[in-house]
């Protein structure tokens, strides 16, 4: 897959309220110290987690890490900049069993199904036993899936191949559940939420919020 085709949105300044809701619950009820913000974008959630005194590490493509450097560079957390590395969902530049929590907010769905299997196996590698994953993952309910006429190009149910950016795999609930369970993760939360980024209030972007624990 051509990862450099990605035109990321690194400009999000404020954390997603759903992220805050689940993150707060997780840190209140579990012993979390070391966190990976996988595909951290401009680092909006990394900053929140740093403010919570966690050891936060991040991975994103070059443009994302550049934005993190600009943003964190101006904050009290500038000494943590070396924790943020250019890397890939499919090849995470950290050692095995390192993290208590892996956050992958609005990024797990990048690629065809075979790419996403790599992402999951990388998360499984870097997370500790009993570690937790918190993700927001695109759902087949999204209008940009429902109304997309290019579905057949991918030859894979749920995946859309775009002309100018990497594929996205839109998940059905059961598909995501089965993927996690067969990879020995528990399902603690699997809820749908919709939001708009069109400014007209119509919820077009449906995602699955997942909280999942590594069992083995
Ligand atoms: C929708 S943004 C979400 C960013 C961040 N998690 C947030 O919530 O603000 C998706 C992010 O995934 C990153 N991304 C896309 N493909 C990637 C890949 N193959 N490896 C690493 N990061 C990737 C993009 O650069 C972008 O920062």
- Note the overall shape: globular
**Separation of termini?**
30 Å
Number of strands: 9
Bound small-molecule species: S-adenosylmethionine
Any idea of the CATH topology?
Rossmann fold
Structural class determined from secondary elements: alpha/beta
Poorly predicted ranges (pLDDT <50, ≥5 residues)?
Answer: none
* Tally of alpha and pi helices: 6
Residues in helix, %: 25-40%
Look at the structure and give the mean pLDDT: 91
- Could you give me the name of the CATH homologous superfamily? Vaccinia Virus protein VP39
CATH architecture: 3-Layer(aba) Sandwich
For the CA atoms, what is the radius of gyration?
16 Å
Kindly give the count of domains: 1
Describe the fold and architecture.
The mean pLDDT is 91. This protein is 28% helix and 27% strand. The protein is globular. The chain has one domain (3-213): Rossmann fold. Helix 4 links the parallel strand 4 and strand 5. With 216 residues, the protein is α/β, with parallel strands linked by helices. The structure holds S-adenosylmethionine.
Summarize this, please?
The chain is α/β, with parallel strands linked by helices. The chain has helices at about 15-30, 45-50, 60-75, 115-125, 145, 175-180, and strands at about 35-40, 55-60, 85, 100-105, 125-140, 160, 170, 185-195, 205-215.
Topology diagram in text:
Elements: H1 17-29, E1 34-38, H2 44-51, E2 55-60, H3 62-73, E3 84-86, E4 99-105, H4 113-126, E5 127-138, H5 143-146, E6 159-160, E7 168-169, H6 173-182, E8 185-195, E9 205-214
Parallel strand pairs: 1-2, 1-4, 2-3, 4-5
Antiparallel strand pairs: 5-9, 6-7, 8-9
The protein binds S-adenosylmethionine.
